[in-house]
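Handout, section 3.2

Students often ask what a structure token actually looks like in practice. Rather than define it abstractly, here is a full record for 5-formyltetrahydrofolate cyclo-ligase. The first block is the sequence as you would receive it.
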Amino acid sequence: MPDRVLPEASKSEWRALLAKGRAAVSAQQRVAEAAALADAVAGLSATTACCYVPFGSEPGSIALLDVLRKAGTRVLLPVVPPAPGPLDWAEYTGTSSLVAGRFRGVLEPNGARLGPGGVGEADLVLLPALAVDRRGVRLGRGAGYYDRSLGFAAPGAGLVAVIRDTELVERLPAEPHDVRMTAVLTPGLGLVELPRE
């Protein structure tokens, strides 16, 4: 469990432990978590939301995107660029608009590209994470796409990481370039606001 990690553990040590924990999650638990997250997101209000399509062991499902769309929210999804850098964005208009992306298992929208500044149109940004600490420090997979992209986010936009309940931890290693989350969304806890520094 992540709570057993020593405070001085490195990001790579955290990632290894969290990956092991995610690999142990049963298919039944994933389905239940996805339904709970879709229910929880129904309580969020946004004109435009940047989201993502979960893949692999990430919690959530496409149903979460559809809940937002049915509520009248414009949903933007990331498009991974050919070289490491900020993400591009395009509108999600339903499952028929999704195509295979650059990375195996990642689905992306096939519509018109909005460029890295697309995230600046959102008042809510839901993003993947392996864990988040109580200070809002987010641990991602390590490629840096979201760290580079969040610099384009609108001031005051809600930055909400979608994680499992056990992935909200006391303290993660932080670096100066890490963008702090304003909240997390979990299957059991729902939306948990984090302190803004």
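Discussion prompt for tutorial groups: The domain at 2-77+123-193 is CATH 3.40.50.10420 (Rossmann fold). How would you have guessed this from the sequence alone?
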